[in-house]
Write a structure and sequence with these properties.
- About 40% of the residues lie in helices and about 20% in strands.
- It has about 375 residues and is an alpha/beta fold.
- It folds into two domains: about 5-295, TIM Barrel; about 315-370, 2-Layer Sandwich (GMP Synthetase, Chain A, domain 3).
- The strands form five sheets. The protein has a seven-stranded parallel beta sheet, sandwiched between helices. The protein has a three-stranded mixed beta sheet with strand order 14-15-16, with helices on one face.
- Strand 7 (about 190-200), helix 8 and strand 8 (about 220-225) form a beta-alpha-beta unit.
- The two termini are about 25 Å apart.
Length: about 375
């Protein structure tokens, strides 16, 4: 596998954008945090907006300092792309870094819709695995645009309750409308999953079968499961609406998010979903991998995708990539049934950068050490 081509593509893309963008745009993008930070396990989180007005009872973004007033993200599509091309962790291309939108703002609010569509079109031109999570249905006209611009996109549509959603998601659209929206997405060939996250004890696990039966009637075949993370504020908010998590938490913090004890709930819903014929992803990135027709064995949640599509990689490929990225290599080995990659380097930039590149491009477990 030619891994060096991703580095070469990144250089060409950056040069192209430097010729196309104004000095002011380049400066703005260079100072943006998207140009610096590493990806999360779900991929490189790209913000389409700042803040969210849906005020969901369980939402953690307000503890992170994000406001309830929404503004679209200040970077244009090309400016965002430029920020990513100067990010040392980002690998552009079909088999490159996963992109995830919707982590800290609802991407299809009135204030963020145009920016989200702009980003989707932009990412469609470079082919990176792209995912968007939402609670807001959009017009079929926009679905058609997305399907043409970014056909490999993965949609996660949050539905955690049908009967109790108003106390959990007071300003969000009706979940039955979201499920109908899933049907529109599937008609256009878009990979869509019910995002059953967070699982609310006594609600989501009780309603899961009804939710999934309706989703199935609209042609949805996938579900992503995820447990609830709480802060003191979230714990109190849920208690006010009659959800007591006292027996499912071990610690609380004003700002830090801690997962509740919810493994039993995931197993319960997992069994219901499998019985109904759904493919269950225990992490959002699994749906993104499948939507892009890729495969991955890089973490404990896998394997994901058709393993016949796992990229073939040799020690020579890895050595060449390391050198292209500025590392002097001591040794490389690929071992075990999971083909774990171990690299020892003598010198070069941050080991984290190399680890991220190797993990994203080879889709395998990676260990990088300096000798």
């Amino acid at each position: 596998m030619d891994l060096v081509k991703y580095v070469e593509f990144k250089r060409k893309l950056r040069k192209y954008l430097e010729e196309k963008l104004s000095p002011e745009s380049i400066s703005k993008a260079s100072q943006d945090h998207h140009s610096k930070r590493p990806p999360r396990p779900c991929g490189m989180t790209v913000h389409t907006g700042i803040g969210c007005s849906l005020c969901c009872t369980y939402c953690y973004i307000y503890d992170m300092g994000f406001p309830r007033k929404v503004t679209k993200y200040p970077l244009t599509g090309l400016e965002m792309l430029y920020a990513l091309t100067i990010n040392p962790y980002f690998a552009p291309g079909r088999g490159g870094t996963m992109i995830a939108m919707g982590a800290v703002s609802e991407p299809f609010l009135q204030e963020t819709l145009d920016r989200s569509l702009e980003y989707i079109k932009t990412f469609g031109t470079i082919g990176n695995p792209t995912q968007i999570s939402t609670k807001v249905p959009i017009d079929e006209h926009y679905v058609k645009i997305i399907a043409e611009a970014c056909p490999h996109i993965s949609f996660l549509v949050t539905v955690i309750s049908l009967r109790n959603y108003r106390k959990l998601e007071p300003l969000a659209p009706n979940p039955e409308d979201r499920l109908r929206f899933c049907g529109i997405l599937t008609r256009y060939g878009i990979h869509v999953s019910i995002f059953m996250r967070p699982i609310i004890p006594g609600i989501t696990d009780v309603e899961a079968e009804d939710i999934l039966n309706i989703a199935k009637s609209y042609g949805v075949k996938n579900v992503v499961l995820g447990t609830l993370r709480v802060t003191k504020r979230i714990f109190k908010n849920l208690l006010k609406v009659g959800i007591d998590l006292s027996n499912r938490i071990s610690r609380l913090s004003d700002r830090d998010q801690y997962p509740i004890k919810g493994h039993d709930l995931k197993i319960k819903i997992f069994k219901i979903a499998e019985k109904l014929g759904f493919k269950v992803f225990e992490a959002a990135c699994g749906a993104n991998i499948e939507a892009s027709n890729l495969a991955c064995i890089a973490c404990e949640w896998g394997p994901c995708g058709d393993l016949n599509k796992l990229p073939e990689v040799s020690e020579k490929d890895i050595v060449e990539l390391c050198r292209e990225l500025g590392y002097e290599v001591e040794s490389v080995s690929i071992t075990g049934r999971d083909e774990k990659i171990q690299v020892h380097v003598k010198s070069g930039p941050s080991l984290k950068i190399l680890e991220v590149w190797l993990k994203e491009l080879t889709r395998r477990k990676v260990l990088v050490r300096r000798v």
